[in-house]
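Private note to self, pasted from the team thread so I don't lose it. Backbone tokens:
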């Protein structure tokens, strides 16, 4: 993906990415951007691309002072509580797709306890035996007609799934949500309040998720290389 698409699609406010008819929203961190370089996905098809990560968000706002964006993450520290409140107040149903079977089952129990009035149209794990099985599952989801769907199968597959739903004619709002389902399987709040307040979420993930460190730094340098290259040619 050309990095110019990344920054041309950033939302300017939370309202941009609230649920609506035929809306497709993804989030890219520097790691998922790195993965997108080898993915055959047309990111122009998304309505918005949220900057996932405080570092890239601050960098973007420093460079693009006239096109600033707030930190918008599809998790409980940012966008998700607003979406849930919207769904409850407007009687909209939600579908969750992602994580392992046990994880998504535990996640749904946690969500039901925290938001008992939320209409959950269905849920499924994010693993498929074949491409055809995945496509059949997506067609079944469209038949259920959830107003909102969260897709947490990891990048870039979750981006591909969101656009497959679009091509099949899904008319609700699709959000990719990375590790949100996996992270929320044991508690509604993955991050301690002090960690969230001080924007130390990435460092907390270093502590909780032992494999994340080796992903972050190589992809950060790749992202910065493409970003600086893009700025120099402007």
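Design output:
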């Amino acid at each position: 993906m050309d990095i110019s698409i990344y920054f041309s699609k950033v939302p300017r406010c939370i309202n941009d990415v609230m649920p609506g008819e035929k809306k497709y929203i993804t989030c890219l961190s520097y790691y998922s951007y790195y993965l997108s370089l080898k993915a055959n996905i047309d990111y122009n098809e998304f309505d918005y691309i949220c900057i996932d990560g405080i570092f890239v968000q601050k960098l973007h706002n420093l460079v693009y002072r006239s096109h600033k964006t707030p930190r918008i993450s599809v998790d409980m520290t940012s966008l998700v509580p607003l979406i849930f409140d919207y769904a409850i107040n407007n009687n909209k149903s939600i579908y969750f797709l992602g994580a392992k079977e046990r994880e998504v089952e535990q996640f749904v129990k946690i969500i039901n306890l925290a938001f008992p009035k939320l209409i959950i149209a269905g849920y499924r794990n994010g693993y498929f035996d074949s491409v055809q099985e995945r496509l059949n599952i997506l067609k079944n989801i469209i038949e259920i007609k959830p107003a909102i769907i969260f897709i947490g199968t990891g990048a870039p597959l979750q981006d591909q799934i969101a656009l497959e739903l679009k091509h099949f004619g899904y008319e609700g709002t699709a959000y990719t949500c990375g590790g949100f389902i996996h992270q929320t399987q044991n508690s509604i709040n993955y991050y301690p309040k002090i960690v969230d307040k001080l924007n130390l979420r990435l460092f907390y993930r270093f502590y909780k998720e032992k494999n994340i460190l080796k992903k972050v730094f190589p992809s950060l340098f790749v992202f910065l290389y493409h970003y600086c290259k893009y700025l120099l040619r402007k």
